[in-house]
Design goal:
671 residues, alpha/beta, Glycosyltransferase, Pectate Lyase C-like, 11-stranded parallel β-sheet, 8-stranded parallel β-sheet, 30% helix, globular, disordered N terminus, pectinesterase activity, Pectin_lyas_fold, EC 3.1.1.11
């Protein structure tokens, strides 16, 4: 038998092992720095890590890169770090070094007023100011390290990271808890202005036209420069994005800055790649063992990391420094160990429109009125009289993240195609010639798709992923018949407005979802069988006809917990086929479902009890099903299930379009 003493010892060892694992929740140093729990930075665990950060900081103020500061140090390691503190060995801003440690010290000082944290932060700030070149740029290592490290370094956003720190100090924001003296603030203002001047001077001109930036620029000539063997002089799709976002963050930008932003944004639009997707092959541990670029249609936009200075053509290099035209030509080590493509410029294009309006940036003078109309107004006609014969082709041709609304006018005809409006085709309008004769139809259903339990979501005839979408004067139909789940219209956009449309199907006709989505349906005819209006978004239906084909359920909301409004029907008319005589208003797809009918006319097909719990007793406590001032044979409030509600006038008044859709959405809808 094992003695009691041994059992206690064994439990201690096992328990200690679990505790040690629990303490190391974060694998990477950068994850710890960006913890949102501010109180954690006052814990003993955080203080222990802070001691390591202080040890790694050189007396000059900078830190080395790629150090997991949270890893426990041995006595020997601590001694070694103390011995090299007075040296400048490997102090850098590469890979986020120094700027991220400064952020950590700021978060520590906000919780623990240890003056060493403040001194460490200020030493780091002084290091950044001392490292700046007279022309405004920053090298990768300071003091200077021989080789390409002396170049002005935009690579991996090194210079942008520095300038974001200095800008926060110069603007005297509350981002950092440590407030330097007025003299240091003034130094930061001058350093930031010099940095911006350097950025403007290094923006590359291609045949006299401003484009973007290289990852490195020569510190003397300011021209694009080479770094490692596979990092040749080129225009960078990645590094240029953060530079432009920095320029866009400046209040009251100069004409030179607005020109730089506008030119770079146009270059991003010109150089985006929408016919390739990266496929990563992982091993059992989740490590990338191969990358392939797959040709697809209408892929999410990406940009090459390296583009030719004169032609914008993508290129790739192995460690031999020889240019190749495709990633497949690069050896496995570099192909899989480097980021050759990026989607970061997408953020620039998303934000450019509002930035341009705010700063009075006009459409290029070289763009004529007819050119602008051609870009923003496309016509689809089956007889060949328009720009395209297929709706999807017109979507493919539409601008990504356009500055103004893009209208696709669809002439009468039956368009037998699946249509997808991708996330990057924002501000798009589908405008039919007539609701009855402009028909988009397809016949996918759950069984036909046959992709497992989530097949329903692949069945839609029209899929809308892009925000600020509008459709009117259309019939959108899933023609598969009564053969299970088959979506006609799927809207997963944050904002969508559908007016004067027929939405036709059977089970699961209309799916509504999206992140904090607000969707608006007006003057529409929607028909189906089971759960034919379903999903988790906030959606307002006004003056719509809701038609049931057979005995079943109209709605199946999955409203997330804590959301104020789910599906709201106002001034709608509920009708049915003669054979449909027992239809529920709704049932909860998820237990926090919310559905309300206000001032609606309910046909006699509506069951007296109104609502059903879908065998979910918890839904009776957590869902919210309600009515107000309805009429018709189907309105029998005294017979409704006891866990539903009849609103008072005061309660019903809260269901205004302004409250349901909120001001931001209302302003967009009114445009």
């Amino acid at each position: 038998m094992i003695s009691l003493k041994k059992i206690v010892l064994l439990l201690f060892v096992v328990g200690f092992g679990f505790a040690a694992k629990a303490q190391k929740t974060y694998k990477n140093w950068s994850d710890i720095i960006r913890k949102n729990n501010t109180a954690w930075f006052g814990t003993e665990e955080a203080k222990k890590i802070a001691e390591n950060v202080l040890l790694y900081q050189r007396d000059i103020g900078g830190w080395p890169k790629n150090i997991q500061m949270q890893d426990e140090l041995t006595t020997v390691q601590k001694k070694d770090l103390l011995e090299i503190k007075k040296t400048t060995k490997e102090t850098t801003t590469d890979n986020g070094a120094t700027t991220q440690e400064m952020l950590f010290m700021s978060k520590m000082y906000a919780q623990v007023k240890d003056e060493r944290y403040k001194e460490s932060f200020l030493k780091g700030l002084n290091y950044l100011l001392e490292a700046q070149y007279g022309n405004g740029g920053w090298p990768q290592f300071y003091p200077l390290k021989k080789g390409y490290y002396t170049h002005i370094t935009y690579n991996d956003d090194s210079m942008v990271n520095i300038m974001n720190v200095i800008k926060a100090i110069a603007d005297q924001t509350d981002y950092y808890s440590i407030k330097p003296s007025k003299g240091i603030v003034e130094k930061c203002k001058k350093a930031f202005d010099k940095g911006i001047d350097c950025i403007l001077k290094t923006q590359y001109k291609q045949n006299g036209i401003l484009t973007a930036w290289c990852a490195q620029h020569d510190e003397v000539t300011l021209l694009p420069a080479k770094a490692r063997a596979y990092e040749l002089p080129s225009l960078s799709g990645k590094e240029s994005a953060k530079i432009v976002l920095l320029l866009m963050s400046i209040k009251n930008p100069s004409p030179e800055i607005t020109t730089a932003v506008k030119s770079a944004s146009e270059w991003f639009e010109k150089t985006k790649i929408t016919n390739l997707e990266e496929k990563r092959i992982l091993d059992e541990n989740g490590k990338i063992i191969d990358k392939k670029m797959i040709a697809v249609q209408n892929a999410a936009p990406i940009w090459a990391r390296f583009m030719e200075l004169d032609t914008n053509e993508s290129f790739f290099c192995d460690r031999d420094g020889i240019k190749k035209k495709s990633l497949d030509e690069i050896g496995s080590e570099r192909r899989n160990g480097y980021a050759w493509y990026t989607d970061e410029p997408k953020e620039v294009l998303k934000k450019y429109n509002s930035w341009a309006v705010k700063n009075g940036v006009k459409v290029s003078e070289t763009e004529t009125a007819s050119d602008k109309k051609k870009i923003n107004f496309l016509t689809v006609a089956q007889d060949g009289s328009g720009d395209y014969t297929k709706i999807q082709d017109a979507v493919y041709a539409s601008l990504s993240f356009p500055y103004e609304k893009v209208t696709i006018h669809i002439k009468n005809g039956t368009y037998n195609e699946k249509v997808r409006i991708p996330e990057w085709n924002t501000n798009l309008i589908l405008l039919g010639e007539s609701k009855e004769q402009t028909i988009i139809t397809f016949d996918d259903n759950f069984s036909k798709i046959n992709l497992g339990r989530n097949s329903t979501f692949y069945t839609s005839t029209l899929l809308v992923e892009a925000d600020d979408f509008s459709a009117s004067n259309l019939t959108i139909k899933n023609a598969s018949g009564d053969n299970g789940q088959a979506i006609a219209l799927s809207v997963v956009a944050s904002r969508a407005k559908i007016t004067n449309c027929n939405i036709l199907g059977n089970q699961d006709t209309l799916y509504l979802s999206g992140n904090n989505a607000r969707q608006y349906f007006k003057d529409c005819y929607i028909e189906g069988t089971t759960d034919f209006i379903f999903g988790g978004s906030t959606a307002l239906f006004e003056n719509c006809i809701i038609h049931s084909i057979k005995n079943s359920y109209i709605t199946a909301a999955s409203t997330p917990e804590g959301i104020e409004f789910g599906f709201v029907f106002k001034n709608c008319k509920l009708t049915a086929e003669p054979s449909a005589t027992a239809v529920y208003l709704g049932r909860p797809w998820r237990i926090y479902a919310k559905t309300v009918f206000i001032n609606c006319e309910l046909g006699k097909h509506i069951k007296p009890e109104g609502w059903e719990n879908w065998s979910k007793p918890d839904a009776e406590k957590n869902s919210f099903y309600a009515e107000y001032n309805n009429k018709g044979e189907g309105f029998q409030p005294e017979k409704r299930v006891v866990w539903s509600h009849q609103l008072t006038k005061t309660e019903a008044d809260k269901y205004s379009i302004e409250n349901i859709l909120n001001d931001t959405v209302i302003n967009w809808y009114s445009k």
